[in-house]
Amino acid sequence: MSETPSQLPGGKVDATAARKRPGVGRHLRSAMITGLLTLIPLFVTLYILQIFFSFLTKYTQPLAKVILTPLYAKTPSEALVDWAASALALVISIVLIYVMGLLGNFVVGRRLLDAVEHFIENLPL
Questions:
Q1: Could you read off the pLDDT tens digit of each residue along the chain, which spans 125 residues?
Q2: Radius of gyration over alpha carbons of the chain, in Å?
Q3: Which residue of 20, 48, 87, 110 has the smallest Cβ count within 10 Å?
Protein backbone atom coordinates (compact mmCIF):
# COMPACT_ATOMS: atom_id res chain seq x y z
CA MET A 1 0.00 0.00 0.00
CA SER A 2 1.59 3.29 -1.05
CA GLU A 3 1.18 6.42 0.95
CA THR A 4 -0.12 9.47 -0.80
CA PRO A 5 0.56 12.93 0.51
CA SER A 6 -2.34 14.75 2.14
CA GLN A 7 -4.23 17.12 -0.06
CA LEU A 8 -4.71 20.62 1.29
CA PRO A 9 -7.49 22.95 0.17
CA GLY A 10 -6.68 24.40 -3.22
CA GLY A 11 -5.01 21.22 -4.49
CA LYS A 12 -1.71 21.82 -2.70
CA VAL A 13 0.22 18.88 -1.27
CA ASP A 14 1.21 18.80 2.41
CA ALA A 15 4.94 18.01 2.24
CA THR A 16 5.32 17.39 5.95
CA ALA A 17 2.77 14.61 5.87
CA ALA A 18 4.74 12.87 3.11
CA ARG A 19 7.92 12.71 5.22
CA LYS A 20 8.29 9.78 7.53
CA ARG A 21 9.70 10.39 10.97
CA PRO A 22 12.79 8.34 11.78
CA GLY A 23 12.34 5.65 14.37
CA VAL A 24 13.42 5.94 17.98
CA GLY A 25 16.27 3.46 17.46
CA ARG A 26 17.66 5.45 14.57
CA HIS A 27 17.42 8.67 16.57
CA LEU A 28 19.20 7.11 19.58
CA ARG A 29 21.95 5.64 17.40
CA SER A 30 22.51 8.98 15.68
CA ALA A 31 22.57 10.88 18.97
CA MET A 32 24.97 8.37 20.57
CA ILE A 33 27.40 8.48 17.63
CA THR A 34 27.29 12.28 17.59
CA GLY A 35 27.88 12.37 21.34
CA LEU A 36 30.86 10.03 21.09
CA LEU A 37 32.37 11.98 18.21
CA THR A 38 32.01 15.12 20.31
CA LEU A 39 33.41 13.67 23.55
CA ILE A 40 36.41 11.77 22.15
CA PRO A 41 38.39 14.92 21.16
CA LEU A 42 37.47 16.49 24.51
CA PHE A 43 38.81 13.52 26.48
CA VAL A 44 41.94 13.32 24.35
CA THR A 45 42.57 17.04 24.93
CA LEU A 46 42.06 16.70 28.68
CA TYR A 47 44.39 13.69 28.78
CA ILE A 48 47.12 15.58 26.90
CA LEU A 49 46.69 18.59 29.21
CA GLN A 50 46.98 16.32 32.25
CA ILE A 51 50.22 14.81 30.91
CA PHE A 52 51.53 18.30 30.13
CA PHE A 53 50.60 19.58 33.63
CA SER A 54 52.25 16.57 35.29
CA PHE A 55 55.41 17.06 33.24
CA LEU A 56 55.61 20.77 34.06
CA THR A 57 54.91 20.47 37.76
CA LYS A 58 57.28 17.53 38.27
CA TYR A 59 60.26 19.85 37.97
CA THR A 60 58.88 23.05 39.45
CA GLN A 61 56.88 21.68 42.41
CA PRO A 62 59.96 21.27 44.68
CA LEU A 63 60.77 24.95 44.14
CA ALA A 64 57.16 25.89 44.81
CA LYS A 65 57.15 23.90 48.07
CA VAL A 66 60.30 25.70 49.21
CA ILE A 67 58.61 29.03 48.51
CA LEU A 68 55.33 28.05 50.19
CA THR A 69 56.67 26.27 53.28
CA PRO A 70 57.16 29.47 55.32
CA LEU A 71 53.77 30.79 54.23
CA TYR A 72 51.83 27.66 55.16
CA ALA A 73 53.91 26.60 58.20
CA LYS A 74 50.93 26.95 60.57
CA THR A 75 48.43 25.29 58.22
CA PRO A 76 47.53 21.78 59.40
CA SER A 77 46.17 20.74 56.00
CA GLU A 78 48.81 19.07 53.84
CA ALA A 79 46.31 18.92 50.96
CA LEU A 80 46.12 22.72 50.88
CA VAL A 81 49.90 22.98 50.73
CA ASP A 82 50.06 20.40 47.92
CA TRP A 83 47.33 22.20 45.97
CA ALA A 84 48.99 25.59 46.39
CA ALA A 85 52.36 24.10 45.43
CA SER A 86 50.86 22.61 42.27
CA ALA A 87 49.24 25.93 41.35
CA LEU A 88 52.46 27.85 42.00
CA ALA A 89 54.45 25.23 40.07
CA LEU A 90 52.14 25.74 37.09
CA VAL A 91 52.60 29.52 37.28
CA ILE A 92 56.38 29.12 37.53
CA SER A 93 56.30 26.78 34.52
CA ILE A 94 54.25 29.21 32.43
CA VAL A 95 56.58 32.10 33.33
CA LEU A 96 59.61 29.93 32.50
CA ILE A 97 58.12 28.98 29.11
CA TYR A 98 57.36 32.65 28.42
CA VAL A 99 60.90 33.76 29.29
CA MET A 100 62.40 30.97 27.15
CA GLY A 101 60.15 32.07 24.29
CA LEU A 102 61.32 35.66 24.63
CA LEU A 103 64.95 34.59 24.68
CA GLY A 104 64.35 32.38 21.67
CA ASN A 105 62.67 35.18 19.77
CA PHE A 106 65.48 37.60 20.54
CA VAL A 107 68.34 35.20 19.80
CA VAL A 108 66.80 33.41 16.82
CA GLY A 109 65.08 36.56 15.61
CA ARG A 110 68.28 38.55 15.78
CA ARG A 111 70.20 35.86 13.86
CA LEU A 112 67.46 35.69 11.24
CA LEU A 113 67.44 39.48 10.88
CA ASP A 114 71.24 39.52 10.56
CA ALA A 115 71.07 36.83 7.86
CA VAL A 116 68.43 38.79 5.89
CA GLU A 117 70.46 42.01 6.18
CA HIS A 118 73.60 40.18 5.02
CA PHE A 119 71.67 38.78 2.04
CA ILE A 120 70.34 42.23 1.11
CA GLU A 121 73.77 43.87 1.45
CA ASN A 122 75.30 41.30 -0.89
CA LEU A 123 72.70 41.72 -3.64
CA PRO A 124 74.36 42.96 -6.83
CA LEU A 125 72.80 46.22 -7.89
A1: 445 555 656 666 555 555 666 688 888 888 899 999 989 999 999 999 889 888 877 888 888 878 877 777 776 677 777 788 888 888 888 888 888 888 878 887 788 778 888 888 888 87
A2: 32
A3: 20
Give the DSSP letter string of 49-106. Answer: HHHHHHHHHHHHHHHHHHHHTTTTTT---HHHHHHHHHHHHHHHHHHHHHHHHHHHHH
Rounded to an integer, what is the distance from CA 112 to the centroid of its chain?
A: 31
CA distance 47 to 41: 10
Spatial separation of the C-alpha atoms in residues 90 and 125, rounded to whole Å:
54
Q: Would you call 8 exposed, middle or buried from its count of C-beta atoms within 10 A (0-12, 13-18, 19+)?
A: exposed
Question: 53 near 90, Cβ under 8 Å?
Answer: yes
